[in-house]
């Protein structure tokens, strides 16, 4: 029986993945955690936990480095909510250009004007004259799962699109329309675009990347869209740029008390991934990744360990998380050879300073030696976690 702990509300389609052999939120010693934006940084993670899956993209709510040292595999669900974010972003682009939020709210304020409403509407509409996005220039910073969809569809809507991503994946590059221009530096985006949207993860490198230096070189009256993370933007510098009308509008999914008080801000309650489809996609993908890892040791879409899989044939697999240092595999296989244990199949991969090895043993692993095998391999210097599956 495996035990899963959940945080946040997880779509039923994901929870339904955990059938007979699973219990949910029934134990203080879960095998895995499934969550969305819940902040895990302050939580004590029980030693029983082997995997944590983020039903979503951003993992800044998870202490990934600490968990990696402890041999806990962290997953996310690349692309599972990208379409939802893209649709919200495109809607916001057009809504901003047509002053939709202010216009709707002004029209609603006419309640009580009776038969004067049509006349007031005709007289008042001039205050909301907008612009069209067609022909305007959009800068997309970060061309991952969300950025590539935004760039292609904005171009299809008639926009000139320029993108910047120094780490663009081969897949994303293949998906990008050939009509989209690639910036050599982020400053090229800052200097030339009417609208700028940022789709990068929050890391120590990207924190505050939209700051005074960036705002200073932007076109006057630029609109900035942040559907990624609030901390990507320096709030002090944003406030000044908004006051000076350098930035005509800041549209964000990540309000703070201070941001809400700034003029020309449109703030949404972190709605990017909040569609039925995205919630189901993310939960389903995350749950399957946990299930696969617990039951077979195979890893897909981990942010801290390599993607590794091998067909699972049952009761003969050693799953070993270890440091990425010389002779780890040599020591493990020597131990097996010295105990006359024959290897049927093996796979190994690394990510940064950590690595993962799966070894299938010929003829399975007899139950009487399981404990001894786990303990002795765990004692090899550099081995972090050993499981027999
Ligand atoms: N508002 C929401 O509900 C919502 C939903 C999904 C994702 N997000 C946020 O959006 C971010 C992006 O999502 P995604 O699914 O596209 O992620 P992704 O990992 O597919 O793409 C991120 C891209 O950013 C690029 N990048 C990293 N550092 C960069 C830098 N300094 N300059 C330019 N590009 C850089 C990467 O190379 C990658 O291509 C997530 O990390 C998350 O924080 C928010
Ligand atoms: O990073 C993400 O996937 C989004 O910010 C979605 O967050 P949520 O699952 O809390 O809506």
Automatic annotation (TrEMBL):
Pfam families found in the cross-reference section: 2-Hacid_dh, 2-Hacid_dh_C
The keyword Oxidoreductase belongs to this UniProt entry's keyword annotation: yes
PROSITE patterns, alphabetized: ACT, D_2_HYDROXYACID_DH_1
Keywords: NAD, Oxidoreductase
GO MF entries: NAD binding; phosphoglycerate dehydrogenase activity
The ACT domain, residue ranges: 317-389
Family (UniProt): Belongs to the D-isomer specific 2-hydroxyacid dehydrogenase family.
UniProt protein name: D-3-phosphoglycerate dehydrogenase
